[in-house]
Write a structure and sequence with these properties.
The chain is of the alpha/beta class and 326 residues long. The strands form four sheets. A seven-stranded mixed sheet has the order 3-4-2-5-1-6-7, with helices on both faces. A four-stranded parallel sheet has the order 12-11-13-14, sandwiched between helices. Helix 3 runs parallel beside helix 5 and helix 5 packs across helix 8.
Length: 326
């Protein structure tokens, strides 16, 4: 937390780490050069690849963007698949995320994407391996969305979407003196802000709100209004748990207790609060929490990019189709 606070400005700690960031930047530049001259290989997989990533360390809201993209593309009739590293999983192989897969084996974000979209999802340490496996198993796939992987240069991509939250680029320095994985600005196709107060004007905005209902583990719904005034405990194991708690309060739900847990917490050995209050959590938490607390209710997040974002994406995809046809 102290380091993340230091990344917001150029104080003593950031200046102390600045020489190390120069080394980080030099190594990153050398790596990019090795890919550019062909010493390291960048490979195509034969279908359109769309990468959703960020240049800032930490969660910036990429997975909700991926889910929104998949839903949009499927509505257009595009056969879509998703690849991911499967952050936080205890395995390291390449595997498909099947319905009901244990998030400990595939990663919570990959499990959530599979649960909410129903499209093929594969995880692997190297995204190029995940892409190849997905196409072998699902050859009808015409477009692959990579959840993260902006810096995974071994996989050639056709469209890059760079996601920012309200931190923007922080103090503008590279790791570890600042939050940047690579220098900004850098070339990309689309910029999307996932927060409520974008730090700079470039790019498209989006809205995040809670759905009007909560979900039980069996898929049935409970109107969110029915929970007003009830004794509930809210918990969140996400990058910014307080944002979830604030959204609940804005909907008239006043939790008796708010539990902020580490991002990607797997709930193994977790003990619920002693009082038998109803548990409210995020969908990302629910795919893990329901194993130990099947009575918990998940409150879905409705993530909506501004309409111009999808129009710009569709235009880029159309230009790719025209180029390939030619």
């Amino acid at each position: 937390m102290e380091l993340q606070r230091a990344w917001l400005g150029r104080g003593p700690l950031a200046w102390l780490l600045w020489p190390v960031s120069l080394l980080f930047g030099a190594l990153a530049a050398l790596r990019r050069l090795l890919f550019r001259v062909g010493i390291f290989r960048t490979e195509r997989v034969g279908v359109t690849v769309l990468v959703v990533g960020n240049v800032i360390a930490g969660g910036a809201g990429k997975t909700p963007v991926v889910i929104a993209l998949v839903r949009h593309l499927r509505a257009r009739g595009v056969e879509v698949g998703v690849i991911s590293r499967g952050y936080g999983r205890k395995t390291n192989d390449c595997r498909e995320v099947l319905p009901g897969a244990d998030p400990r084996d595939v990663g919570d974000e990959a499990a959530l994407t599979r649960y909410l979209t129903g499209v093929p999802v594969f995880v692997a340490a190297k995204r190029i391996d995940a892409a190849r496996a997905l196409l072998r198993q699902h050859p009808q796939t015409r477009l692959i969305v990579s959840d993260d992987g902006l810096q995974h240069l071994a996989l050639a991509r056709d469209i890059e979407i760079c996601v920012f939250d309200d931190r923007g680029i922080g103090n503008g320095w590279l790791l570890p003196a600042g939050p940047l994985r690579e220098h900004w600005p850098r070339r990309c196709d689309l910029v999307l802000h996932t927060g409520t107060r974008p730090a700079f004007a470039e790019g498209f905005r989006s809205q995040r709100a809670l759905a009007d209902h909560a979900m039980r583990c069996d898929g049935s719904r409970v109107p969110l209004g029915d929970l007003e005034g009830q004794p509930v405990v809210a918990l969140a194991a996400i990058a910014k748990p307080e944002a979830f708690f604030e959204m609940l309060r804005a909907r008239g739900i006043q939790p008796r207790q708010c539990l902020a847990l580490p991002d990607h917490f797997d709930f193994e050995g977790w003990q619920r609060p002693p009082r038998a209050h109803l548990l409210l959590c995020t969908e990302k938490d629910a795919v893990k929490l329901w194993r130990v607390a099947p009575d918990a209710l998940a409150v879905p997040l409705v993530f909506t990019p501004e309409p111009g974002f999808f129009s710009a994406l569709d235009a880029k995809l159309s230009s790719l189709d025209g180029h390939q046809a030619a």
